[in-house]
Amino acid sequence: MATSIINRSTPHAVALETTLLVHGVPKDAARPLAAELDSIITAHGARPATVGVVGGRGVVGLNSEELSLLLEAPAVPKANTGNLGLLLRSGSHAATTVSATMELAAGAGVRVFATGGIGGVHKNYGARWDVSADLAALTRFPVAVVASGVKNLLDVVATREMLETLGVPVIGFGSDRFPAFYRRESEAGVDGRFDDPDELAAFLDAELARTGRGVLVCNPIPAEDEIPQGRWDEWLLQAETRASESGATGRAVTPAVLSALHQISDGATLRANLALVRSNAALAARLAARIPPRTP
Fold it and tell me: Which residues are catalytic?
């Protein structure tokens, strides 16, 4: 795998995924968002390293031309740990999900990754059991993933229990509760809490090296951007109904629900998503700036 990686990362790098840019926001918002996240990370003393697959090569630290190729291509598949090798072999472009970003980042020696939320255990919408590859990736790659928990359209409690089963350390930054993306808290807790970035960075440095596996750092959405519970429950019920009526099944359910949420909320869910991504990028940069680099 290492021979398939173009590594342009620098010490104190923060990995960023490309699925958010290619599939998660409107096309006209993708490039400004990429520039904004780069600026946030740089302002906090770290260096951005956007991850993607370009022409069958995994790239850690996409340049402007490579990012343009992904953003302007008519159709770009999503890469996860299951299909990453096939996409590399075929010479394809691909946007990296959390799991594929972790794999490529770890291969390049990048130890911190900022995202919105990880995938998890899906609710049973009449389909068979569906669990994201992101959870297993945390057991395989020594990367600290800074995220606002999991989207609360998933089964949040089951996801937290699965992380415990897999032995993935779940750390709350400034919180004792496991966040649920648009909501700062869920019914689930965390394994430990840190309020000081220096102490958290020291723990991550030691833990990543000790175990050779990932750590999930949970950073709740900023309080001012949290979606009220009653409004969220109403929007989610409507979105799930629309997705069901559309006939979406399996992997198509989550994108269908998210699209419906965006429409029903008049863009409020997307605005909340972007707010927590910015917050996570800032925290990831503060941590990366404090963690000594290691040779991959």
Answer: 17, 151
